[in-house]
């Protein structure tokens, strides 16, 4: 046997080709080490692209590519020799015909010959487009990276977590010594032993079909810090360790306190003076919130006061890792809005029907009658139309029993204590809209209506939702004095029940506590299996009021298990 050299690992030629873009891109490294990146029309015949690669390769380094026109015309021998033969062979070894368009020619596994060099074509290999760690890491709290990828999915990526080496006694710096931890999951919860050390994540993108792309690494900006110890939700997690069965739905409604409102001077000094300033910071609260929500093993989560960046960079990536898909609806003119999450293996999304109350009142024929009644009270009408409140409505279908559908509504009503009349109008719009979806578009599907209604159980709003109607002589029509009276008789066709009853409070701040949040359910179709108890009064008041170092919001999450009747 002759001394044949072992086959050289073939170089890669990476092709990116997607239908939505007219050009495909091609990247490879020439034998002399120079990188090439070319864009070619997807429709162009292969032959033209190969000819272009040949002249491109011939340029090489140095002056070869810059020959004068005259020299090129005379075809100096040196120039001729430098243009290599370029061909493309398909996986089975046959040459790809030159008239085949680029999009069809450059298949995964094909082999490109440039002179003596060989390149294996990788078409649309998995690639990471973003890899980020949260700014704040707390021991005992899950660290959820933000992973964005192309031709790959986070659940198929490989994760390796490293921690800094502790500096040895003599003043050496920790430097670049990293020790791999045993963790190989997407979510990593650092132990107390890692306090004071930074973390590093290495992620390799995968597509679930045994294809992997180049890995990326990201280091935490700071070290793991000590967590707060016990939180208000720890005891509640004892009831929600497991996801409930397919015949049941665990629903959560929670106003998570927008950063927009938590970090103002007014909030720090007037609203929440009892709360340690660091515990109002968004990075700190997000750590608590992600642990709290993940631990509820919920099927449906309706959140209010969700900052857009919190949804995109923090909550959606974290809850995605725990099996939940998120939908976001911003409030016009504001940086916060509503989010609805649903468990992917239990539900699929059929349709979305979000509205802004003011816009719907003005433009949707559905609300014409209400709009005309409201026009008789210009002062109230103006207030209603100024509000940016929105209603998020999602229609879900069970993955195991397609006949089971759900209309999930989520809202955050006007907040002002004297705005009871405004809230009644907002509810009227909401109920008409939900009726259109759950009676007309999807006849007889059950409704779950969650939110921060800014209304106590003694209010007209609560009574309107639960009784099905409101009389024109109800005192809430004059909630802001006679001059803003607007009296109407309104009704809706649903039989709704507050699944968690009427707790003493769901909002507990220095100057107020009361029940403002509800999960209303369709009594005809759903029943309450269990209500997860709220934290004890003692837990809520340990640090005077909410938020606190052990509770991330001024509201308390409502959680209940429902089942189909």
Automatic annotation (TrEMBL):
Domain Endonuclease/exonuclease/phosphatase: 253-555
Gene3D superfamilies reported for this sequence: Endonuclease/exonuclease/phosphatase
Region (Disordered): 57-78
Stretches that traverse the bilayer: none
Gene Ontology terms for molecular function: metal ion binding; poly(A)-specific ribonuclease activity
Cofactors: Mg(2+)
Keyword annotations: Exonuclease, Hydrolase, Magnesium, Metal-binding, Mitochondrion, mRNA processing, Nuclease, Phosphoprotein, Transit peptide
Keyword presence, Phosphoprotein: yes
Biased composition (Basic residues): 60-70
A single BP term in Gene Ontology: nuclear-transcribed mRNA catabolic process, deadenylation-dependent decay
PANTHER family tied to this protein: 2',5'-PHOSPHODIESTERASE 12 (PTHR12121:SF37), CARBON CATABOLITE REPRESSOR PROTEIN 4 (PTHR12121)
Family: Belongs to the CCR4/nocturin family.
Name the record gives this protein: 2',5'-phosphodiesterase 12
Source organism of the structure: Loxia leucoptera
